[in-house]
UniProtKB/TrEMBL annotation, chains A, B:
Family the UniProt entry places it in: Belongs to the group II decarboxylase family.
Database matches in PROSITE patterns: DDC_GAD_HDC_YDC
Protein name as annotated: Tyrosine decarboxylase 2
Needed cofactors: pyridoxal 5'-phosphate
InterPro entries documented for this protein: Aromatic_deC, PyrdxlP-dep_de-COase, PyrdxlP-dep_Trfase, PyrdxlP-dep_Trfase_major, PyrdxlP-dep_Trfase_small, Pyridoxal-P_BS
Any single GO BP term: amino acid metabolic process
Gene: TYRDC2_2
Length: 492, 492
């Protein structure tokens, strides 16, 4: 063959792999050491990067050093630093050493277990680690591999919702005929995450068939079983087919928890698929003092939660458990000749391709397994509790400053508060918008806002891995300082 | 606060991060050095892992060494080694040092750019790198940011298909009414990847509305524009609504290429959304000698290809370009209050959450950018060409052994061949099944099979990053040896 050999091209040569990887490790470790020096929320203007980097790919290889220098000089100013200890926005996305190690192993092996044969250990480790998680959350055996249920690791809550919606949809349509797809109805509260709306649109159910049922301050913005039942009855009377209910443990706006057991009973009564979205607060339920929020989970058909949020597992990792994996498989399986193999045809193995949207899949089980083993249940509980304690500490500061008020009681590590100084509600909103803007533009912290029951407020989501007491203290001082300025400006 | 401090709990402390990460780097480098010692295809039996690992999570932290030892002793036997140079199955999933570095940076920053504000540089780098890729593939400006089109990095071809199908579906249903969803028809060939069937099921179009049009040996198993047009006309006559056409550049079974330009003209004539799935062979189109397979791409509405297959980019990374991003946004956008922000509302920025299924997203642009810069266009072309050259070399071996035949002409780095010794076709199939089984059970190579035009054959997909000439030589020797045995057994 002769001319094929090119000694300089060895894109996975172990020695170079090791040397270059270690340079990047040092680069990332330095980043964590210096992360507080950057503004948390990027201060760049739209389109800034276009003038910083060439508009087409290089023809020849470039050294790693040049790439790292460009990250430092050109990309870093455009990053919003999710791993900053001063990041209190949205919900945190926990990185950890263990999560990173697991991600490296996942990427290093670069194994794709779409069917069991394609890498048996990857599939069997996923079954195992999903059972571990189920036990930590005290889920009933019906969600575990031993009880004919099972778990799968997906990319996101939206994927979990799309897959379970499709399963629920196809089960009903098989009975009533495909034309009825426009009659299927999905129930949630007005606090349910937007992933549900998106999932409904994706699976071809008319978006107008989502009932975003109203919640109220008096019930902590949780979904009322009575309201649900009334809506179901009304839909049935109007010729609709109630299909799916999404309950939430820890809503995005204010951390509300739906009454799982009571909703589950309504869902059973009307034969709805009942999904529990515990994306954020599911992690907390490994602690006995929070587990009661999942009471009634045995009435659900599926449950999802995101270790990539509050469980020290780097992106991405969403756990989905279902009671009846066959319902997923009925909707999502394909069986092309080029993937057929003896173990799959024996029916004795799990082929995860039929439990998710894509065919290909990353070896996420490796990551979650490393996270759990490296920390252990006790430390993971400590992790949750220390964030909750920091949030409680922040809450106590809010309570002591009469200019502020809590908007809803805190359940987990999300504190919803606001300045209450304005004369009418519009003033209040503007004042709090200004306060939030001042805090975020300082570069010293990043929080976001939400509106519930018509009330605009600021969300302080405690839980970034690097956040310590001093950061929460610093945040509170910053808020007080900016509040004084904003209130003064309002008078002038 | 006092009791909160726990000096031993610092899950992202830079020094420990660096030390432990480097241990894992050494572990992975050793793995690559020793990878040929493992059987490529795992030889374990279903359920093997259950007895090897505890059935519940540890209560206390475990040392990294124990975890790595368990990977070595307990998981490794259950791995099918996708990065082995003797992996010739399915299509390869390229790992590379550059891909790994990019993945580490992605995971280390752990940035989520669902909207521009959430990390401006991540979004702007993605726009830039998708334009770079578009230029390398010589896509028309209508797919680039400068031409009102644009690219997005997704997890998989299936995600790309779901998103484009939903966009096409909603555009038509907005005109004709939602009830028509059961009348929408999707066209493909019988060689199209199963992701299309799955995508159709997910978006709520009846699976029976997919026309898997027949292909033939005489046309290289490509979709005939005449066959397509006839099918469309028949559907229109029957009251169906032609919606979407999926053309493929490099099919999974045998590497067939659909005639893009001719299909594109039919699609335009009947106003179908035309998607090109170039998951595998798209990478080859950065070489001028392969680019002609994309001729006519200007007639398409969307195009996807997977750098995680043949472009040295570790999992996962799927490029999707669309001419009209608004059509994706119309179907996939959600705008909850808690994500609202000034730049998004200005309309001057890209919010990638509305171009994909999930809300959250990994920083994949970082990875693809590192891969491209670290190698450069010239080296990436060399990479493609050297794999094609190895496949050509293998093909020449097949041609010289009269017991074998090529099943279809080779276009890229996939060789489709078989033993032709049997008396009738059933004998042929059994013989080739036995040959494949013997090769795979030896542990020294892993190939898979397919069936086209009723013919069972063996697929040798050359392209694993570590594969060199000696591995292809070894594979051929192994095949010859096992063929002799299988043929002898058949006589006895």
């Amino acid at each position: 063959m002769g001319s094929l050999s090119n000694d300089s091209f060895a894109p996975l040569e172990p020695k170079e792999f090791s040397q270059e990887s270690k340079k990047v490790i040092d680069f990332i470790a330095d980043y964590y050491s210096n992360i507080e020096k950057y503004p948390v929320l990027s201060q760049v203007k739209p389109g800034y990067l276009k003038t910083e980097l060439p508009d087409s790919a290089p023809y020849s290889p470039e050294p790693l050093e040049d790439i790292l220098n460009d990250i430092d000089a050109k990309l870093m100013p455009g990053f919003t630093h999710w791993q900053s200890p001063n990041f209190f926005a949205y919900f945190q996305i926990n990185a950890s050493t263990a999560g990173f190690l697991g991600e490296m192993l996942c990427s290093g092996f670069n194994i794709i277990n779409f069917c069991w044969l394609a890498s048996p250990a990857a599939t069997e480790l996923e079954i195992l680690v999903m059972d571990w998680m189920a036990k930590m959350l005290q889920l009933p055996p019906s969600f575990m591999s031993s009880g004919n249920g099972g778990g799968v690791l997906q990319s996101s809550t939206c994927e979990a919702i799309v897959c379970t919606l499709a399963a629920a949809r196809d089960k009903v349509l098989a009975e009533v005929g495909y034309e009825a797809i426009t009659k299927l109805v999905v129930y949630s509260s007005d606090q349910t995450h937007s992933s549900l709306q998106k999932g409904v649109k994706i699976v071809g159910i008319p978006p107008s068939n989502v009932r975003c049922l109203p919640t109220a301050f008096s019930e902590g913005f949780s979904l009322s079983p009575q309201t649900l039942e009334e809506a179901i009855r009304k839909d049935i009377m109007s010729g609709f087919i109630p299909l799916y209910l999404c309950g939430t443990v820890g809503t995005t706006a204010c951390g509300a928890v739906d009454p799982i057991e009571k909703l589950g009973k309504v869902a059973r009564k009307y034969n709805l698929w009942f999904h529990i979205d515990a994306a954020y607060a599911g992690s907390a339920c490994i602690c006995p003092e929070f587990r009661h929020y999942l009471d009634g989970v045995e009435l659900a058909d599926s449950l999802s939660m995101n270790p990539h949020k509050w469980f020290l597992t780097n992106m991405d990792c969403c756990c989905l458990w279902v009671k009846n994996p066959d319902s997923l498989i009925d909707s999502l399986s394909t069986n092309p000749e080029y993937l057929r193999n003896a173990p799959s045809e024996s029916g004795n193995v799990v082929d995860y391709k039929d439990w998710q949207i894509p065919l290909s899949r990353r070896f996420r089980a490796m990551k979650l397994w490393v996270v759990i083993r490296r920390h252990g249940l006790a430390t993971l509980r400590f992790h949750i509790r220390s964030d909750v304690k920091l949030a409680t500490y922040f809450e106590s500061k809010v309570a002591k400053d009469s200019r502020f008020e809590m908007v809803v009681p805190r359940k987990f590590a999300l504190v919803c508060f606001r300045l209450k100084a304005g004369k009418d509600s519009k003033d209040d909103e503007n004042l709090n918008k200004k306060l939030l803007q001042e805090v975020n533009e300082s570069g010293n912290a990043f929080m976001t806002h939400a509106v519930v029951g018509g009330v605009y407020f600021i969300r302080c989501a405690v839980g970034s891995t690097l956040t310590e007491e001093r950061h929460v203290e610093g945040l509170w001082k910053l808020i007080q300082e900016k509040a004084t300025k904003v209130l003064l400006d309002a008078i002038v």
